[in-house]
């Protein structure tokens, strides 16, 4: 598996898109720091971008890599290697290279700006951790979709729809249901509903660590009570881990019966 | 050496292999022929473990291959379409495949044979189709295995490389290896194959030497003999 990972990683690290992605974050980091002149504020703006962008890029890279390397995967399948090792290697290769683009691209400007002397270091690290989780989650989800869909165009469409659903539509449904069931106590419901969407979970996890959660009102207080504690933090991280593991398990299950 | 026993494979409603039985003994060149969509590639992919049959079993050296992967170290496979990671160089790709197989390899000899020395450091994405096919051939022939499977090996090759390929196949045959080839180019079959396996509707329709086929169909020309076999089915 490590050998496959190594070469997938090399291949991606040399692709133009990894650099574009890296440079984008580098530029974003510098521009935000220059405009805000304040690490804390920059972290907040950055969160809004990362929460939407990393899932999108992870999704697109995942499906694209799967379909583009299809013939090569067939060559690997004819080698004496276990099937699941090939795909796990590719999956980790993509996820790690994307995570590296994110961490280095944002890390460099913030470190240069004096992150280590700032109080925002914890928030910033949390942002990077959550961003990395989102990379691993969405690459795994998109790999699942690609594995289940023979047709490239359909696979691409489904993957984008999945992203759109989790990034936008889910929130819409969530909000509508909050308005509709206004008369009932909804704090438990909203807490649980957040868990079923990794993007929402990440957003709230970061928001509550930042000092803007006072804006959130009563439900905010319930959330604060939950996520603000160490237990809540550990629990939400654990749920993010599940969001990575469950697609991986399904991937391996699917692989056992798949024809190439 | 290889036994397919009562092999069934369906893709949705489409029945590709329908209770196929086939025995291939050790040594010699076997051409697997059949019209488009007759199940040639599916048969080979079943043997490689890439396609999982619904029913039946496959034995390689008397051991079942289903759900195993170790046996693949004992065979070389040339896939139909050569498409490699575009950002790796030829040399890196060769190193990688070598890395994946714990086996001796003689890639330098093959690189010289196909004149790939100038392309070694080029990225695979920048190579022409024919050159990719040559790289594909190097990857297939560089290991010493008893079974060699070639899926449409002549695609995109120039005449000189084609001659080299034929020589290579004969050389491997002389070492007592078993070679399975699928192709649509009858002159190629005529030149290299010892035996023909003809698949139609998911079953073995004919198995025997070229001479036997010509005799059975009353045709002196291989191309017409094969066409005869196919048209009989359509009639």
Task: Describe the overall structure.
The complex is a heterodimer of chains A (260) and B (235). Chain A is mostly helical. In chain A, 84% of the residues lie in helices and 0% in strands. Chain A has eleven helices and no strands. Chain A is globular and about 60 Å long. The two termini of chain A are 19 Å apart. The model of chain A has no long low-confidence stretch (mean pLDDT 86). With 235 residues, chain B is of the alpha/beta class. Chain B has a single domain (2-234), classed as P-loop containing nucleotide triphosphate hydrolases (Rossmann fold, 3-Layer(aba) Sandwich). Helix content of chain B is 36%, strand content 26%. Chain B has eight helices and ten strands. In chain B, the strands form two sheets. In chain B, strands 6-7-8-3-9-10 form a six-stranded mixed β-sheet, with helices on both faces. In chain B, a hairpin with a 2-residue loop joins strand 1 (2-11) and strand 2. In chain B, helix 7 crosses helix 8. The mean pLDDT of chain B is 86. The chains are: A mainly alpha (260), B alpha/beta (235). Chain A: Keywords: Membrane, Transmembrane, Transmembrane helix. Chain A: This is Cu-processing system permease protein. Chain A: The chain crosses the membrane at residues 20-36, 42-67, 88-115, 121-146, 158-181, 201-223, 230-249. Chain B: One of its GO terms (molecular function) is ATP binding.
